[in-house]
Each structure stands twice: as C-alpha cells, then as structure tokens.
Amino acid sequence: MPRNIAVDRSEPIRARYLARLFWRVAGFVALGLGALGAILPLLPTTPFVILAAFCFARGAPALHARLLKSRLFGPALRDWQASGAIAPRYKVLAIAMMLAAFVAAVAASAPPVALIVQVICMALAALFILSRPNGDD
Q1: What does pTM read for this prediction?
Q2: Residue 31 and residue 51: Cα distance in Å, rounded?
Q3: pLDDT, position 35
Q4: Is residue 58 within 8 Å of 18, Cβ to Cβ?
Q5: What is the DSSP letter of 106?
Q6: How many domains does the chain have?
Q7: Within this chain, do residues 56 and 123 fall inside the same structural domain, yes or no?
Q8: SS3 state of residue 136
Q9: 8 Å CB contact between 114 and 101
Q10: Closest alpha carbon to 30 in 40, 41, 45
Q11: Range in 28-32, 39-43, 81-85, 119-123 with the lowest mean pLDDT
Q12: Distance CA 74, CA 56 (A)
C-alpha cells in the first residue's frame, strides 16, 4: 500500500459515537415509558425498565450501573439479569394489572374483536411471566 494515501480513521469513531448515542436515547425513551407506566394503569413499567437497562448497558454504562443500584428497580433488574427471574409479588401484580386492564376494556364497551385480541395477548404475556423462575422477593 502506498504511503501517501490518507486513511480516514474517524469513521469507526463516528460509528461508535452514533451507536452509543442511539443506545442512550433508546434507554431514556424506555425509562420515560416505564415512568409513565408507573402512573398509567395500562402501560407496563417493568419491561420498559428492563429495556432501559439493556440499552444503557450498551450506551451508558454509568446509567446502567445506577439502575442496578436503584432501590426501586435494582433487585428486579439484578434477578432478571442473573437468571431471567421475576419475583412472585411482581408476577401477581402483573397478572392483576392485566385483569384490571381487561375489566376496564369491558367496562368501556370495547369491540369484541379488540377484547379477543387483548385476551390472546394478555394470555401469552401471562404464560411468559408465569414460566419465569421466581426471583428474590
């Protein structure tokens, strides 16, 4: 290779920067949706916080560590990271919230097709949740 050809070494740095930026933005969006889920009954919190931890692990290790040390989310995230486990109380809470959302949809006179889709989605989600090992409570 001739020595007078300039090599652009900035491209890998730019790509890494953009990737980290993407993961950070995705982490903050997921965390924001998780925070909304703590307030809104139909929006889940835990999956978005798990997604935020996943994103922050790739784009913002300090924020990932902070989430893992969090008094509120840390134990559930550590259980999930270690073994894909969900504590029994969170399983009960998740299933109860699904039932409450279904009752709200029935009370709001949702169309039958929407109720059927909701039942199928919630049943699959409940099966997944119940299939996970029990974490620390």
Answers
A1: 0.69
A2: 8
A3: 87
A4: no
A5: H
A6: 2
A7: no
A8: coil
A9: no
A10: 45
A11: 39-43
A12: 14
How is residue 133 annotated by DSSP? Answer: P
Residue with tokens 């699959």: 124
Strand-pairing partners, residue 86, are 134
What are the beta bridge partners of residue 134? Answer: 86
Within this chain, do residues 2 and 69 fall inside the same structural domain, yes or no? yes
Distances (CA, A) of 82 to 20, 29, 51, 91: 24, 24, 15, 17
How many angstroms separate the CA atoms of 15 and 18, rounded? 5
Here the tokens at position 58 are 């790739």
Same-domain pairing of 70 and 89: no
What does each C-alpha distance from 56 to 8, 78, 80, 99, 105 come to in angstroms?
29, 14, 15, 31, 34
pLDDT one-digit tens code per residue, 22-75: 999 999 999 999 888 878 766 778 788 889 999 999 999 999 999 999 998 888
Q: Looking at the structure, do residues 109 and 129 belong to the same domain, yes or no?
A: yes
To the nearest 10°, report the CA torsion of 122, 125, 126, 130: 180
